[in-house]
Task: inverse folding
């Protein structure tokens, strides 16, 4: 069975408590539940990781990518500056979808630039949890 890596970056462990008017009132655990349900429907496996620094995220991706079908990643603020994470995603060369809960183009100017997005096949921004579920459909299709 194909396995999808679902990675969330800094501060996404605070979902539910963190600026709920922007990120919603549901927690990371609830997001993972919704992803598990979708994985069941799509008949794929998922491996989750949340990290507050790019080093730990890169370590996870390097370790897990060799037998994964794709990556769904919300790099959080790392999107805006982590060239190390960009290099990692580029090097691993798996089908990757970058997801943002909020619409990064409708917020502060600094958020509209993502340096990691260049390593992704596509970006889904502003659709909340649904963005992750749509990304799963895309990755599942790629790996058929
Ligand atoms: C975010 C948007 C980023 O700008 C921010 O730093 C986050 C969350 C989102 O999901 O909307 O941490 O990636």
Result:
């Amino acid at each position: 069975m194909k396995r999808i890596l679902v990675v969330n970056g800094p501060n996404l462990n605070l979902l539910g408590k963190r600026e709920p008017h922007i990120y919603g009132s549901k927690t990371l655990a609830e997001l993972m539940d919704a992803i598990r349900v979708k994985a069941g429907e799509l008949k794929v496996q998922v491996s989750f990781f949340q990290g507050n620094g790019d080093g730990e995220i890169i370590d996870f991706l390097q370790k897990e990518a060799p037998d994964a079908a794709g990556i769904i990643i919300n790099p959080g603020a790392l999107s805006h500056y982590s060239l190390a994470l960009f290099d990692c995603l580029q090097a691993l060369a798996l089908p990757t979808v970058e997801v943002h809960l909020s619409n990064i183009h409708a917020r502060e100017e600094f958020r509209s630039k993502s340096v990691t997005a260049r390593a992704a096949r596509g970006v889904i921004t502003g659709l909340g949890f649904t963005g992750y579920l749509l990304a799963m459909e895309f990755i599942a299709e790629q790996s058929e």
Remarks:
- The CA atoms of residues 91 and 119 lie 9 Å apart.
- Residues 28-42 form the longest helix (15 residues).
- The helical segments are 20-23, 28-42, 54-64, 83-92, 129-142.
